């Protein structure tokens, strides 16, 4: 096929039927199957790490597929798709610096790359014009926890794929802790183009220490932001792109299918006009199919929320406003959790410390006192037959009235409420239970704003655009009640049960 350019980008057209297949031997990309050079001269060769990722085998080309890849590479058959004339980035090594970017065609058969050849050497039924633009491997993220984004895997795909991310290597610990093996399957069996593999063994550190909820991902970007930021700090584009493509793939022993543009690898690539630009890729191809164009996904999220993952938050039927008494303090005073400022900058995370203080008391028991920035906190959790309610004091939140309620991934199934009155604590707890989990802001018995997270109490089933608006609403409502934390509900949920200490 040929390509027609439109206002929305490249479109595929049929290749004339008389176009002959070439039999020229494909060019081999330099370093395409080499390991990195050893760290020390004379040191042992670097070998792949032991397999640490499951569900990989289904993405490896079968013998029949490999046979067809070979026929296409030999010019005996046409490719399904040819990415024509792009400046292909070689991420394997830089032993020949001038050849880290080569003008090449990429021939794709089904989900895999058949050959990387000189322009025009071989034909295909469809083609994508990449002339004058760079062709990079799709990004591989080994540091993202899906539940931290607050999105279902299908909605996360709609947000990340247009930014060039093709694969997540996830730590499923929290999902398995609350959902069992089905929790991991929920993350890895999305029907969207985003590939999610469950990672085992030692967790890999994320590429950034900043939180990556839907808010940050939508505003700043994902690994595309990391590449842009690394180049701004002085890294070469080759180094920055390698760090989020081949490096994580090799670390988790999946570089035989991911992380580079070479024969038999999955056809996961992106076409960009400028290297390390903050703009989204022009085109993203995943598994041999065009998945996104000009920052827009070309697929819908049709994944249903699994019924077993809904309604997992359960409170005792006997819970009432009198269920939140603080323990009687000892003569030395009460212990309270103090939320300390994280410093300057919106991404600075506050810290926690334990302080002892003389609480405001009523009837011999500590009570919330907004005039002293003292709020009551209740941590509600445990198995359905033995739910516990632990109550204490917290300061540094800033609430002058009302209550905040939220579920937390640090202890899946746990519900936490912070507030200035027991009635509002109860209203917040019941509201979160009714949503199946999430964030809620309550004032004088009324729910002022909410962000439901009904999937395991950790993720939304709504479109990511709607979740973004709901989070903005709960942040604004919390600020109206005096809360002075940046992104208060997500910040507090990130601390989990560390927010409570026995008075």
Automatic annotation (TrEMBL):
> For the Adenine deaminase C-terminal domain, which residue ranges apply?
360-494
Record region (Disordered): 1-55
Which superkingdom, per the lineage?
Bacteria
Q: Which Pfam families match?
A: Adenine_deam_C
Name of this chain's protein? Adenine deaminase
Species per Swiss-Prot/TrEMBL record: Frankia umida
Q: Which Gene3D superfamilies match?
A: Metal-dependent hydrolases (3.20.20.140), Urease, subunit C, domain 1 (2.30.40.10)
Read off the SUPFAM superfamilies from this record.
Answer: Composite domain of metallo-dependent hydrolases (SSF51338)
